[in-house]
Write a structure and sequence with these properties.
By secondary structure, this protein is mainly alpha-helical. The chain has 15 helices and 2 strands. It is found in: Membrane.
Length: about 425
């Protein structure tokens, strides 16, 4: 009888739990890093420099270029902003006519920086020349490091973890009030709790699908997109604009995370009616459950920041709303339609995921759209980091490689005409 009673209690406890669909697979914690590493490895291969050999200098002479326009690296005087003795042991090496200092425009001033092209034959320069996509991976590591800082900075600014938690909860409730109690409520006719409830009441297969894709569309999906677009973009300037926009959108979000911590719906008190469908049964994703992850960073949504940027790029890449660049040619109509559908469907799919799983509010996506749009117009702000990058390359004795973006299209052309690309950090 005792065992039967215990069984009934367990059954009652299980029955009392609301149905939240299937959880993420426990294998996500080790599978997702493998997926990302596999994507990066494949990207290194497909974006490699064809015909270049790392250990055959006679065949790989001048594997890199100074990605500055010619007038930026010619005719410089020896009186640069950097003392030659700080960078070279030989007094005249910095002023060599073969490797004159670069000229950078920074805050309205011309800054002379060391030209690291003299290090093109160093082994690590040649490795980068063979696999220039390594530079993109370096930028991603910097992004991740700054994201991890937001959690620590917010805790420092708001004294204690308890104070930070309460403030984030207040901000989350304020977002709900703005959406559904202010004069802006006509923009948000469906409450997030009602939207989630629709999936939980009779549509558990759909919420299971969304639960399991929540983490996959974030880091693995975004890395896949950047890897593909590095290969598919008509030239590196186009790719760099997208990457700089996404990076600036990241940093705009990081700034807001630090000074406006916001609790996602899933962490609000139970009376608000939200359930955490993704993290049930401790099936966490390595990308959303690690110690470095800022759990109080709902506003704006980084998921939607990336998705909106990806969708906008698909629309641009379709070529429907613009004149094709000379280097890329005209796409077939069915290809244009596929990119058009993907450009609309992907952001909508991500929006459905983040709201149905109670990880974000509608307003999080609206703010993400605004910050991403502003980031597009201001993406060249990162060009001010070029002098610092030049100095870093000099210190490391490495030459920044020529991007291979657009090489696929150039190889298709019977007559090669180089496309001038902007250099970017």
């Amino acid at each position: 009888m005792a065992s039967t009673g215990a069984f009934n209690v367990t059954e009652a406890a299980v029955a009392a739990q609301p149905a939240m669909g299937g959880a993420q697979f426990a294998s996500h914690t080790w599978m997702e890093p493998i997926i990302v590493v596999s994507i990066m490895t494949a990207s290194l291969y497909f974006n490699r420099k064809h015909g270049f050999r790392i250990f055959d200098k006679s065949r790989g002479r001048s594997p890199t270029r100074s990605v500055l326009p010619h007038n930026n690296s010619q005719g410089s005087s020896p009186d640069g902003s950097f003392d030659s003795d700080s960078f070279l042991s030989e007094s005249d090496a910095f002023n060599s006519s073969k490797h004159p200092p670069k000229k950078r425009n920074c805050c309205g001033m011309v800054v002379r920086t060391p030209n690291s092209s003299r290090f093109a034959d160093n082994w690590h320069s040649r490795v980068l020349s063979k696999w220039p996509f390594l530079i993109e991976m370096f930028y991603w590591v910097l992004n991740l490091a700054f994201y991890a800082l937001t959690k620590a900075l917010a805790q420092v600014l708001f004294s204690t973890n308890d104070g930070l938690w309460q403030l984030a909860e207040d901000h989350g409730v304020m977002v709900l009030d703005i959406e559904h109690k202010s004069w802006l409520r006509f923009l948000f006719p469906i409450k997030e709790s009602d939207f989630q409830a629709w999936f939980l009441n009779g549509h558990l297969t759909a919420i299971t699908f969304l639960n399991r894709f929540y983490s996959l569309v974030h880091i693995p999906g975004t890395v896949s997109f950047l890897s593909w677009y590095y290969y598919a973009a008509p030239n590196h300037s186009t790719f760099a604009t997208v990457r700089r926009t996404m990076t600036l959108g990241n940093f705009a979000a990081f700034f807001i995370f630090t000074f406006f911590p916001c609790m996602p719906p899933r962490l609000l008190p139970k009376e608000y009616g939200f359930l955490d469908t993704v993290r049930q049964q401790n099936a966490e994703s390595v990308w959303v459950g690690g110690n470095y992850v800022n759990q109080l960073a709902a506003m704006p949504s980084l998921h939607f920041t990336y998705a909106f940027c990806v969708g906008s790029t698909f629309l641009y890449h379709s070529g429907i709303f613009r004149r094709s660049q000379r280097s890329e040619g005209r796409k077939p109509f069915y290809t244009q339609i596929i990119f058009l559908i993907a450009g609309i469907a992907y952001p909508m799919f991500v929006l459905t995921i983040i709201v149905a799983t109670a990880n974000h509010y509608w307003l999080d996506a609206v703010v993400a759209m605004c910050t991403t749009t502003l980031s597009l117009f201001g993406n060249k702000v990162w060009m001010f980091l070029l002098p610092a990058e030049d100095v870093l390359c000099w210190i490391l004795r490495v030459d920044k490689p020529t991007p291979t973006t657009g090489d696929r299209l150039k190889r298709k052309e019977a007559q090669y005409q180089p496309v001038k690309d902007e250099e970017d950090p």
